[in-house]
Amino acid sequence: MYRLLIVDDERIIVDGIYQLLQGAVHLELEIYRAYNAYEALEWLQRIRIDLIISDIRMPGMDGIDLQKRVMRLWARCKIIFLTGYNEFEYAQEAIRSGGAVDYLLKNQDQALIVRAVEKAIAEIERREEDKDRVLKAASKLQLAMPALQKKVLAELMEGVPPSLERLRQQFIQSEIPLAAEKPACLVVGRIDRWDDDVAESDRPLLIYGCQNIMDEYLSPAAVQVPVVFDNQYMLWTIQPSPGGATEDRQEEGDRSYSYLSDRIRSIVEAAQESCRKWLKLSVSFAIDSGPYAWTEIGLRYTYLKLLLGQKGGQEQQLLIQNDGMLEPLRQADKAYSGSNPLRGKLVLLEQYLENGQRELFMKLYHEIMEAENPGSQTELLERFYAVSLCLVSYSIRTGMFFGLTLNKHFPKMLRFDSHDGWAATVGFFAEIAEQMLKRSEEKAEDASSHIVESIDLFVNGNLDKDLSLTKLSEMVHHSPTYLSRLYKRLTGRTLFDYITEQRMTRAKSLLKEGAMKVHEIAAAVGYESAPHFTRSFKKYTGLTPQEFRDR
To answer: Boundaries of each Response regulatory domain copy (predicted)?
Structure first.
């Protein structure tokens, strides 16, 4: 699924090409419209655009100026220019400057427009197949990332940050290109799974490949440094680039962070899809665009990992943006001693449970519960109720709580004095956790089915609204590409076909009732114009709306 943006100051041309390409279903396009270059820039700053069809001459900002800005925002975006008879040399110059792949006369045959789009898509796909290029660049990145940088950033994520002056010195000494006195935006990535044919020795290179892809999409708007934890999690700390694309929109300060925050989701979405296509890696992402001071970075990293787990440890290619979801956890943490070493372990324990990581969970669980010097009775009570709360809380979030309460041993989860010694307590909670992990694995496919059911329900109740793949994917915290493939795998048909079917079914019902005019029915089922609705209806039923009504 590719995103195409049509740009022209003549509305009739934009709408005509839109309707033409909407009918070319084999292209699998998600299409957007802009009626001047400034509207186009608003779309480009919000979402990734793969292909643009643009008038080369427009008032205010012409197609060439737009092309230059596009290349700074989305370097891989391809452009097809619409020209007049006397503008060929102008268009050829644009093609030589990079990005543009074709030019068309405005009055050319519609079939030529479709062919030009097919050609542009083929060129995009050829570039995306170049896995060797990505891995070679990743290998260079791996060699260039000094061990000292990794050490400084890892300590920053896992411990209490040093003073500002000390942090500034560490960044300078390790050549970390970030400003210690400025806040940072955060992105956490998780390798969802490793295929059986991926050797252990190849995994670091693929992870660096993922990091390189992210770097390509972020440049030149931002500077970033990635860190890898546990050979599975990646953290990007990101700041606006002093000389990047942000300067076109603002001069300095808070506005540059606002601009970067606005773009992070679309950047991450593009990187996620590239990892899937180029590296065959399923990667989930959680975004906390903040920005946050360095004193908060380590804790935010832990929260984002937990958020990935809370949205479904068994799910793949998640794309979650923190819009206040972590605030309750943040407030609770303020009330809990940050120096308590047990706190960090418990957060990690819950994360392993959420992600279905049985071995890591059990290892850390026994480390918590079987400490050589458990200490006083008070410390044992703290461990007991902390683990109890972790398990009960997880059961509530995952819908297992009712079944858990039916277990005759459930009261023992809440009463410290109901166990025959500490060893029995440890064994009891381990058995409960094992049962939960097993049930979680059984529910993984159920979760995917629930996503499809939620989408179907929303579509049926909002046929007159925006039902673009981007909109629907944001609802379920997945990338558009993943949602499209998941829906087809579970239902046997495309999401586009389902939406069209529901709209046509509703339209036929309204036509039979006879109370509404055709243009009113078109609006009621999500079509902006009666002619577009009429063409779609005839293509679907073989009859025009009026012919269907008159039968």
So the answer is: 3-121
Apex CA 266: angle with CA 467 and CA 51, to 5°?
75
Give the model's confidence band at 87: pLDDT under 50 very low, under 70 low, under 90 confident, else very high. Answer: low
Tell me the β-bridge partners of 237: 186, 225
CB neighbours of residue 326 within 10 Å: 19
Rounded Cα–Cα distance for residues 445 and 226 (Å) = 32
Alpha-carbon distance 220 to 73, whole Å?
Answer: 8
pTM over 0.90: no
> Residue 263 domain-assigned?
yes
Rounded Cα–Cα distance for residues 526 and 168 (Å): 54
Say how far apart CA 543 and CA 548 lie, in whole Å: 6
Q: With contact defined as beta carbons under 8 Å apart, do 133 and 88 qualify?
A: no
- What's the CA gap between 42 and 46, in Å, rounded? 6
Is 176 in the same domain as 258?
Answer: yes
The DSSP secondary-structure symbol of 465 reads: S
The answer on 369 and 223 residing in a single domain is no
- Interval 149-183: pLDDT, tens: 888 888 887 766 788 899 999 998 888 999 999 99
Query: Across all residues in the chain, what is the average pLDDT?
Result: 81
Q: How many domains does the chain have?
A: 4
3 state DSSP class of 462: coil
For strand 184-191 and strand 283-292, is the pairing parallel, antiparallel, or unpaired? antiparallel
Domain that includes residue 103, residue range: 2-129
How does 196-230 read in b/e, with b if 16+ C-beta sit within 10 Å? eeeeeeebeebbbbbbbbbbbbbeebbbbbbbbee
Using pLDDT thresholds of 50, 70 and 90, give the confidence band for residue 514: confident
Q: pLDDT tens, 224-256?
A: 888 887 778 898 999 998 754 444 444 455 567
